[in-house]
Amino acid sequence: MKKLFPLLVLTILFAAGCERFEKKQATTSTQEITQKKVVARVNGRPIYEEDLKGKPLQTAIDYEILYEAGLKQGLDKKVEQAVEDYKKRIIVTTMQNEIMTNLPKEKAISEAEIEEYYNQNESKYKIMSFKEIIVEDKNLADEIHKRAANGEDFEKIASDLATAGTNLEVKDLRLNRKYNDRFIGKEIDSVSEIIEEGNRFVILKLTEVKDIPLAKAKHAIKYTIAAKKRAQAVNDFAEKAKNENNIKVEIIEVEESK
């Protein structure tokens, strides 16, 4: 019994010390809260002076009132998807940044890679000029297209139709890439199909093609190749993560509406 007495004393002292420490921590936490000056309450929720950060008090009160009113209207349920989407973007962006950070240092993109990309994507590095006729009547567009396809000059067509009181517009569309894909591999003076843009009908004739030299495109190509490599790294990581975490992916083909 005598041997147990000192152990009992130590246990009591230790317990008392722990209790004093917990009380001190609780007191400190309470003091930190009470030290913050409450300047208003909305539905009992305090607004602290230090949280105003220079804003007028009424602005902070209005903010809280609008929040409470929104909750009453159930807006928290309506914004759940937006919050979830925002959270998803942050998580995915963080993962992408981690993937990029942990990638081994990339080799410099070689001149051969740049030249190969340029040759494989030749159509991207051309700028074209066109004659353009714009009308708002489909039947008139059909007539113009037929005459243009037969080789008639756009100005002549416009002149003929203008004297008949027809409302149309002829423009020179200089050196752009908007319609490149429609004229890849076509010769000068080729005429497009009728292009519907909103309530307008557009007919084009190719008048000039200029190549963007490799030297001028090199910087943009280097950036594009680097971006493709980064995208591939993300895809490789995703495939690995899918297999390691047994993530099921189901691709459902949606039939395009006709």
Q: How does the major sheet shape up?
A: 4 strands, antiparallel
- The tally of helices reads 9
State mean pLDDT (0 to 100 scale): 83
| CATH 2nd-level architecture of the domain at 115-214 | Roll
Quick one: how many beta strands?
6
Q: What's the helical proportion of residues?
A: 55-70%
Radius of gyration: 36 Å
CATH C-level class of the domain at 115-214 = Alpha Beta
Low-pLDDT stretches: 1-19, 26-31
How far apart are the termini? 95 Å
User: What shape does the CA trace take?
Assistant: extended
Note the run of SSEs as H and E. HEEHHHHHEHHEEEH
Based on helices, strands and strand pairing, what is the structural class? alpha+beta
Strand order of the largest sheet: 4-3-6-5
CATH-derived topology of the domain at 115-214: Chitinase A, domain 3
Explain this structure:
The protein is α+β, with helices and mostly antiparallel strands. Among the domains are: 38-72, no CATH class; 115-214, Chitinase A, domain 3, CATH 3.10.50. The chain has helices spanning 4-35, 49-52, 57-72, 75-78, 80-102, 111-120, 138-149, 154-163, 214-244; strands spanning 38-42, 45-48, 126-135, 169-176, 195-197, 200-211. The strands form 2 sheets. A 4-stranded antiparallel beta sheet has the order 4-3-6-5. A hairpin with a 2-residue loop joins strand 5 (195-197) and strand 6. The longest helix has 32 residues, at 4-35. Mean pLDDT is 83; it is low at 1-19 and 26-31.
